[in-house]
Amino acid sequence: MDIQLIALFAAPTTAIVALLYGFFLSRRVLKEEEGSDKLQAIGKAVRDGAMAYLKRQFKVVSIFIAILAVIIAITLGIGMAITFLLGAIFSAVIGYFGMWIAVRANVRTANAAQKGLNPALKIAFGAGTVNGMLVVGLGLLGVSLIYMWAHFTFQSQGAEMVAKKATEVLVGYGFGAALLALFMRVGGGIFTKAADVGADLVGKVEKNIPEDDARNPATIADNVGDNVGDCAGMAADVFESYALTIVAAMILGGQMFGLKGVVFPLLARSGAILTSILGTFFVKAKNDKENPLNPLIRGFIVSAVSAIVIFMGLAVYLLGEPKAGFAAVTGIIAMLALLYITKYYTGPGEKPVVEIAGASRTGAGTTLISGLSIGMESTFVSVVVVAATIFVGYLLLGFYGISLAGMGMLATTGIIMSLDTFGPISDNAQGMVEMAGLKGKAPEVTGALDAVGNTTKALTKGFAVGSAAVAASSLFATYFEATGLKSIDIALPKVFVGLLLGCALPYLFSSRLIGSVGRAAFEVVEEVRRQFRTIKGIMEGKRLPDYSKAVDIVTAAAQRELLIPALMVVLMPVLVGLLGAQALGGFLGGVVASGLMLAFFMCNAGGAWDNAKKYVEDGNFGGKGSDTHKAAVVGDTVGDPLKDTAGPALNPMMKIVQIVALLIAPFVIALVGR
Amino acid sequence: MDIQLIALFAAPTTAIVALLYGFFLSRRVLKEEEGSDKLQAIGKAVRDGAMAYLKRQFKVVSIFIAILAVIIAITLGIGMAITFLLGAIFSAVIGYFGMWIAVRANVRTANAAQKGLNPALKIAFGAGTVNGMLVVGLGLLGVSLIYMWAHFTFQSQGAEMVAKKATEVLVGYGFGAALLALFMRVGGGIFTKAADVGADLVGKVEKNIPEDDARNPATIADNVGDNVGDCAGMAADVFESYALTIVAAMILGGQMFGLKGVVFPLLARSGAILTSILGTFFVKAKNDKENPLNPLIRGFIVSAVSAIVIFMGLAVYLLGEPKAGFAAVTGIIAMLALLYITKYYTGPGEKPVVEIAGASRTGAGTTLISGLSIGMESTFVSVVVVAATIFVGYLLLGFYGISLAGMGMLATTGIIMSLDTFGPISDNAQGMVEMAGLKGKAPEVTGALDAVGNTTKALTKGFAVGSAAVAASSLFATYFEATGLKSIDIALPKVFVGLLLGCALPYLFSSRLIGSVGRAAFEVVEEVRRQFRTIKGIMEGKRLPDYSKAVDIVTAAAQRELLIPALMVVLMPVLVGLLGAQALGGFLGGVVASGLMLAFFMCNAGGAWDNAKKYVEDGNFGGKGSDTHKAAVVGDTVGDPLKDTAGPALNPMMKIVQIVALLIAPFVIALVGR
């Protein structure tokens, strides 16, 4: 027993190690030079824009969070409200610092690119790893502290009481974290795509100036958007899945194996954090000519393989149940399969992407048709992987097996988040090299980094969707337990009605977000056109445009469009609750199922269009400037709000709906019945 | 009892009245003149193309059907195989004759348009009504004869035995009908859109010649496609929903009310057929200037209102249960609501369509984004209507109430099918006037008819989707009964896995169909380009292109792409059945839920893009030839395979999956278990 208690303490310790490693890396990144005055000025503009956005975002969000906290305190007790706030704060901190380091690393990467690949890669990936360590460190720390509190406070009342109390608190914590993740995803997603689409529509299409050209009044907003959308949103979202899956595994493990079953997920995750750290040491290019993707893959494989070893070892020697190891490894394999599927369907040079690029020869219509078809096919294949994971996990160890598979999917979160954040940093660095007009090695190095960053960013999306779906599925199981329902029987009409409404909600939600991007992008277009019209000398490069205006517009738009999707997600379960607890259960199943489909579909179709455009730009089917290219650009524009706004926002959305249902379940049962 | 038996005979009698009315109308249409030699030649080309297609289609399909019939005979008995063939033959006959009259009415409508609106409207709507009467006449005849056979053969063994035998036979009948509907929808959908997209991509975009220009080598194929896709496919599909809903109502009614409960749906439907016939008498324009939509609406309203009166009267005086009337009326209201929603989201001049047209000012990218957003929103709203219908029906009279609501939705099928077939006939007439170069009143009259035809065609799509969903839902209830399951509990992982796979299947299916259109359209483009390149004098109008080549290409493509989707739909339930009967139930729920979403989404987004393009062509936002117009054309091209191929094909697909599950259920239970 003593050994197990020591193991219980190992988790927060590892979490702190991860945070310290992140702190060390951030110090190292910040020590690097920012480069010329011009580079510094550009860096400052992006940094200021990003921070201004976050500040304003947090202002709006904190009002909403405060109101909700009061409602929660009144209806569910002050304890729940506090954990709700805690979750929200943790999530906000991760979003904030992840972005904080990204907007400092971008300019340093651009500067270091003048010296060669490795110096630039070290900064970009190092800053990415800061984000990765924040996510896993705080993720594990929060959960393990809460669990230890429950353990030592309620130990005397038996294991069941510990599990009950821990679950209660963790639901509040998860709600706060998920809600903040939703705000980050929605706000960031609208910001980034409105700026991107707006900048491209006038810059690339009307004025024929290249991407990231300093003459484009929306170019700073575009660069700010990369950070806002890809760092802050993704980090908060994955943090939340990370916390939810381990909670589910701990609770179910406790029921099946006692304390050992609780310790296993904690130790497994601690081990996985160490393997992620280990992996980061292998991220080093052999020389300046090596494709930067290779060292990243090396690091990732080291992490994944050593995680498998640790999971199996712990399962056999600590838990005495190899099946637990197999379940976790199933998750790792599923994660690899999802990465592979995403790579196949969206990767540059792969058959589907070449097919879309080829279809662009007959115009934008066929570009779109072929992308829709490929996106839908990829959805089916990805869903089969998720379904197989759930099924195999269940065959191995019942619900505990499913939750372990979920943990396995997230085993390499540390390094995956590093790869993801690496994307916007490289993208920004590439933009800054372009805007500052740096010559020599720099454009080539940042070009290569940017291309790889786009790939890693796209790959990690499939991972985020799949893990969110598994996290939401474990919540779904929790709902079933919490309500004491005997079944959620879709053969009953009211449950089937709940299922239909659940399937329909992701459509309404996505519709709103895609529409928001369209509206905000339209405002950006108007502003950019206005500047070109009224400020003389921009096109000749004699005067700088007023970058801050476009930033202001998208910042305001992102806030304005924030509340309605959030209200939708919080209120719909309440409305469906009027049909009873079982109908609400049908609704939850529908939200996960349909949300999963749409998320895969939108992320993959969008990614494929993006890379089809790049494939043409690389000189295929006529190359840049050809009619084929114009058609491919249309595909990319359509894919943008799908893959970077609506698709990713569905992840926290699925989770919030489940949590809201869990919170209101007692009221539904009392007032309406099962 | 005697009165009720007389009532039992009333149904086939009414069915025969409907068929005779259709026969009378077709005689009247055929008596009209075909016009000038040139018009006759064009009419013959379209007619020959359509008939050649159907002949080849039936050849391929009959092999598949024959193989299946043998398998069914071996595994399920010879009786089931015979009813399977019967259903397939009925469905084929409806598709065949619906098209037969349409390809004879089109040229006569074009010719009559020279005399004015009413003569042309009379032919186009008259021929449409022939199709409508075929659907409802054969629909009611088949079902009532089968029921009467069961009634008089098994009467002595009790009502339950009658219901059991009738269900058995009707499942086979439904399977044959649905499978043929699937082939018609898939083949017709690929044919029509490959021809349409192919003709437009070279004609409109590359060569700048108008639609239906006689110089375009794909123009005959395009006109053939309208008949093949919109008449044959739609008729077979709706025929099947029409049969399924009444079967469900009769079985459940028999359980609840005895023979009275069986007679009620039969008499209600007989009454509704008479009201549809009544409605057709009101379709007459007041003068040549009246918008042809108005008389159509007048006829429709007469049908709907008198159907409400009949339903309520029968419920109160025959059944003695007003709730049955309310349930049926709920269905009529739902159908009206779906028509209204479709009209709002896709209708010319409505806010969403104007918004899409406006978004086209900033290019095809924003056209697409705004259409996707609007399509998704319309999906949510439509699904709420379907969910509410199921819920209210259930509240009123349980499962019987749901099936009556489904019957109510299909109450006006007769006139709705007339309106739908009116679309391709008018479309063809308009094309023929253009190709034959008719002047005077004719272009104006057929232009007005075509515009209205487009509207009615689009409106009836929402109706087809909604009614297919309700029909599939009643089958879902039948599956539950047939398997003796206690619940289909999605809280069980294997059932949830079934649900996920069910939700994913419509994506794979749609992906395949959309891809097929892309591939076939590409072949058409190549052929059309080849003819322009190698046959001198086409562009100058000195030589006619070789129309038959394009027809051959799409005919072959449609057959080639037919088998894989059909196999998908038949084999997937078998594979999922390996997880047990309950998992298969989850799968069925997923297929209906997700199929419904995608079908609404694709039909509505496609319809909205179509009309946004027309709105621009009517001189808004720059009109024809402007950049806005080019962007709007891209939206229309993308929407085409969604709204006319994949979306409509999902209807029979949902139903077939349910029927296959019903057929294999005994084996699943015996071999795998519940």
Give the beta-strand count of chain A.
0
Q: Mind telling me the C-alpha Rg of chain A?
A: 24 Å
The assembly state of the depicted protein chains is: homodimer
End-to-end distance of chain A, in Å? 41 Å
Question: Pairing-aware structural class of the strands and helices of chain A?
Answer: mainly alpha
Poorly predicted regions of chain A are none
Portion in beta strands of chain A: under 5%
| Secondary-structure element order of chain A, N to C | HHHHHHHHHHHHHHHHHH
User: What's the rounded overall pLDDT mean of chain A?
Assistant: 90
Major β-sheet profile of chain A: none
Task: Using a beta-carbon cutoff below 8 angstroms, give the protein chain pair with the largest interface and the number of residues from each chain.
Answer: A-B, 79 and 80 residues
Choose one word for the global shape of chain A: globular
Task: Tell me about this structure.
- 2 copies of one chain form a homodimer.
- With 674 residues, chain A is an all-alpha fold.
- Chain A is 86% helix and 0% strand.
- Chain A has 18 helices and no strands.
- In chain A, helix 1 runs parallel beside helix 7 (259-280), helix 6 (219-257) packs antiparallel against helix 12 and helix 8 packs antiparallel against helix 9 (322-346).
- The model of chain A has no long low-confidence stretch (mean pLDDT 90).
In short:
2 copies of one chain form a homodimer. Chain A is mainly alpha-helical.
